[in-house]
Amino acid sequence: MCAYLGALLHRKTERIKIMEGQLSEKRYSAYAKLYDFFYEMFKNTKDDRNVNNKDMRNKLLDAKKELIMYGTDEVVFALNNYLSSLTDASTYKQLDSFLDVMLLIRKDMCGETKINRDAILLNIMQDKKELQKFKDMELTNSEQ
After folding, report:
1. What is the pTM of this model?
2. Which residues form the domain of 69?
């Protein structure tokens, strides 16, 4: 009887591990789609290319669909906050809420990380002077 219960418990535990692995893969896929969307926008902006709004909107909707299904609550709320900031917030607030999304995704995927807001911005901007402009904007906003 004990051997049977032990085998049953082992089987259930293995099933749970498999399901957690599948969920993790889906979550990473959703995060990758969101990152792909953002980086495609950055590329188009840097290349001064016209953006196909319909195509980009569809990519964002696909990413949001997977994110709402598989992402953590914190990431979903942060993305909602970012998207809401696009309508009426300052450029600083928009960028700040965008960084919240990126950091939360990274934390969920990697656990504790040494990558911070500055590292993400520098990765995107690839220019320390531009990064300093953002930091100056941050100081100006905090004084208001």
Report:
1. 0.76
2. 2-143
